[in-house]
Fold this sequence. Notes:
Order of helices and strands: EHHEEEHEEEEHEHEEEH
Low-confidence stretches: none
Radius of gyration: 18 Å
Structural class: alpha/beta
Number of helices: 6
Distance between the termini: 36 Å
Shape: globular
Mean pLDDT: 94
Largest sheet: 8 strands, mixed
Amino acid sequence: MIIHNIGLENSILNQFILELRDSEIQKDAMRFRKNIERIGEILSYELSKTLDYETCTVQTPLGAKEVLVPKNELVLCAVLRAGLPLHQGLLNYFDSAENAFISAYRDHHNDDDDFDIVVKYLASPIVQDKTLILADPMLATGKTLENTFGAMKGHGVPKQVHIVSVIGSVEGIAYAKKVFPEHTHLWIAAVDEKLSNRGYIIPGLGDAGDLSFGIKL
């Protein structure tokens, strides 16, 4: 896996990460969603530099000009529900991409620390020989992404795989490296050192889905 930790660079990205983590600013759900969306846009821009390009000619009112533009067939896949604002940030830049949506949630047995990742819904185009971009804001244990990618295998084998996340854990990234193809790219805004006993990133930011859309039952 090729890891791009964009948060290590000096950029406005880190201001958005700071606001996402701030427990007071988090009370504004619209601002929380918007910051994830903006991070998705920044990571999209960085990711776009690694795509394949071709020359196109555009006709202006005064003449013709050659421009290099991406030629990859993209499929953006959001992990519901927390991935929706991140997906929107990607879609703002890759507006001609096809889109997939998959539900994945943690099923804690008897409310203890152990859990399974349950996938119940998938709507996706064919991904065969296309560039698949998986959008999940929190890369905690890596098991959600593993199950998501596994569920999509019935839709073909992508030519390239990119993972876009906001915050990840060292452990989760290490796990993803083991279960994803060798040349998978991970685009991430921040990496934290620890997981709690229940598999949440510390210090992280809390539950991105709840903070974006309200507490679930």
